[in-house]
């Protein structure tokens, strides 16, 4: 019969067993592995444009052959690209294409859908007649830098795409609820100015928590546009947009997005802020827009 003491291994006073240590090595030495820490995930919430590219010459030649078999007489090059890629028999080409996301004309990410069915969203982002006011919004998980052979040497991060939607700025503004007493054209001009200010902020690639919060507000929270038009009507200018960690931050990552308006005659500054939670992949509103006071 085995003694009780033989069936119970002694516990190290340093807690080495809990760290995956092996203390049965020659000479009674211990070999401990480093404690495992979960990888830090980096999310992306970005505004820009999607551009399909041929990653290799063979894919480009295969597309030419597929085009020769399609009925594309009278179509523009852009319409032809969408028509050919939309056909079920050419689905393999859609998966082979390199889908580049540009921000302010700069190649910023390469997109890879997390679900194969989401390739349909990429095809739909190909407007038959693209315009400068077209915007694509991507939400996903930022991955490693793309290998050299993935997109003809383009060395930018890969984004595992979870959500994509496309619109034009005019459509976005028309969808915003306008207060009854507010002039339509003035509201449109104010909203356009604020939107362009947001997307043209320095280094806004949608990869930091601050920019994710701001980009979320740009496309999901109409109150910032209403407040901006009201400030213009009161003879004030939008002088700054700041993003700061909220005092409510603790376990969760919450940011205050502060809009400052300065009266053009008196130089009196009024500030308003919104709180946004960016802890996980999808940001959401914590506090609606209200007056902000420096502390």
Briefly characterize the structure.
With 295 residues, this protein is an alpha+beta fold.
Describe this entry's structure for a reader.
By secondary structure, the protein is an alpha+beta fold. The protein has 2 domains: 39-168, no CATH class; 176-295, no CATH class. The chain has helices at 4-7, 57-69, 77-86, 91-96, 119-124, 169-175, 184-199, 209-220, 223-233; strands at 21-22, 31-32, 42-53, 98-103, 106-113, 134-145, 157-168, 236-245, 254-263, 269-277, 284-291. α6 (169-175) packs across α7 (184-199) and α7 (184-199) crosses α9. It is globular, with a radius of gyration of 26 Å. The chain starts with a helix and ends with a strand.
Instruction: Write down the overall mean pLDDT.
Output: 86
Tally of contiguous helical segments? 9
Tell me the domain tally. 2
Radius of gyration: 26 Å
- Secondary-structure-derived class: alpha+beta
Sequence stretches where pLDDT stays below 50 over 5 or more residues:
1-19
Beta-strand percentage?
A: 25-35%
In this structure, how is the largest beta sheet organized? 5 strands, mixed, barrel
Secondary structure: number of strands = 11
- Biggest sheet strand line-up: 3-4-5-7-6
The SSE string, one letter per element, is HEEEHHHEEHEEHHHHEEEE
Helical amount: 25-40%
Shape: globular
Cα end-to-end separation:
74 Å
Which helices and strands appear, and what pairs or packs with what?
Elements: H1 4-7, E1 21-22, E2 31-32, E3 42-53, H2 57-69, H3 77-86, H4 91-96, E4 98-103, E5 106-113, H5 119-124, E6 134-145, E7 157-168, H6 169-175, H7 184-199, H8 209-220, H9 223-233, E8 236-245, E9 254-263, E10 269-277, E11 284-291
Parallel strand pairs: 5-7
Antiparallel strand pairs: 1-2, 3-4, 3-6, 4-5, 6-7, 8-9, 9-10, 10-11
